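Same chain as my last thread, 284 residues:
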Amino acid sequence: MAGTKAPVGQVQDRQPGSEEEMHPQPDYMPRFAGSDRLKDKVVIITGGDSGIGRATAILFAREGAKLAIHYKDESEDAEITLKHVEEEGGEAFIFAGDIGDPKTSEALVGKTIERFGKLDVVVNNAAEQHAQDDIADISEEQLTRTFKTNIFGAFHLLKAARPHLKSGASIILVTSVTAYRGQPLLIDYSSTKGALLSLIRALSGNLASENIRVNGVAPGPIWTPLIPASFPEEKVETFGKDTPLGRPGQPNEVAPSLLFLACEDSSYISGQVLHPNGGELVGG
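reply #2:
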């Protein structure tokens, strides 16, 4: 049964963190057979080496997608994700780079078009977070870094992708439950996720006349490498236990929400957000 594994207290000293160093390992493999819902669709996924990105890449491959999998610098995790994607029969490549740098998005989109000839789905998933007890402790460097990755990176990617997106394309932004109710230890992170929520709403209206859909997913506490890379050991050990379901979610419990928004099952949905968050009630 998904989600039954409890986190063990642990800490990683760098972001985005390594999935291979986590214990227990997150659940990222798809739970059901594919049905060609993304057959021959070309998809870019940022932060696709681990966590929600890895689970999404593997699920999309099972559904027939061709994938450009971006990652920052966790090469071992990215290679493992690529291996699973290829085992699902997916055609894919991995691409390293800082998503906060506009040249990364330009090169990523360029290689995707060169390799596959088109672009159908864009998944903006890459993110970072840094816990601080007090807003006074958030340095200018941290603030700039968090915004560059989480919100500037989304703009860079969408600007680079925009000329290649045709009628029927889908854009998915991974925001967070923190966009709705905040997180006292993640003030700057929550702010960027709120900005992504507004971006979903604004861009969906901007692109609706061209039949390009823009939606989001707002996960709650999900067991990914960002958790031991962000919080002290005692916080990691109790991570997710305060949700109504009493546990953190697993990446493969979030990926189906992204699949739904990527495929034609959601053809009449735009400007909306799905909430795989363990039962927390949030608005909008």
